[in-house]
Amino acid sequence: MKLALLTLVLASALAVVTRASNEDAETALRAAVDQVLTVAQKAKGGSSMADQITPVLLRHVCFESMTRRAVGPGWRQFTPEQKAEATKLFTKLIIRSYSEKFTPGEQPDTKYLKSSSPGAGKVEIPTITVYKGSRYNVTYRMEDRGKWMVTDILAEGVSLVANYRAQFDALVKKGGAVAVIASLKQSVERT
Fold it and tell me: H-type helices in the chain, by residue range?
């Protein structure tokens, strides 16, 4: 009887902690999205928009984690300098690529759905975003890293990290860190 009561108390406490964590993560995500939209609305477009939203995204997105996960097990082969270079390039590529999709002054409408917690310190927040008449299902994966940060984005069920991982796996096998960094440099130059 005592064990059953203890289990019930622990389960209730865990549910309260999870609910609070999910709410904290959603609050952080809403603030990040609002900040990005405020900057994007005032931006003049093009690379200017990427330059202007970069400081906001750097505060709310853990690009190091995204880069590490996108590279996968090959990340262990990278030197600290190569890790820093790959992260810098990957960050620039992601920000430029996605900032080009926005038109200054156009505001998406985002509806936040019920979040879930796949593990301790992790929260997934699904959203429905309507932008220029099109509807998008976007899920933000967040982790508590002293503060809640985005560590992956799923657009229409496709993970940004997994998408790049598929590309980087072949590069790591073919030429290691040098090949990944060279590919990232080429991609950044094209954007």
Answer: 2-42, 47-60, 63-71, 80-99, 160-190
Query: Tokens standing for 85?
Result: 């270079």
Integer Cα distance of 129 and 109 in angstroms: 6
CATH number assigned to the domain covering 2-189: 3.10.450.710
> What pTM was computed for the model?
0.83
Q: Provide the residue ranges of all domains of the chain, joining segments of one domain with +.
A: 2-189
Q: How would you write the pLDDT of the chain (191 residues) with one tens digit per residue?
A: 444 443 443 344 344 344 557 889 999 999 998 888 888 777 665 557 788 889 999 999 999 999 999 999 999 999 999 999 999 999 999 998 888 777 766 788 899 999 998 888 899 999 999 988 889 999 999 999 999 999 999 999 999 999 999 899 999 999 999 999 999 999 999 87
DSSP labels, 50-64: HHHHHHHHHHHB-HH
- Residue 7 CA to residue 183 CA, distance in Å, equals 52
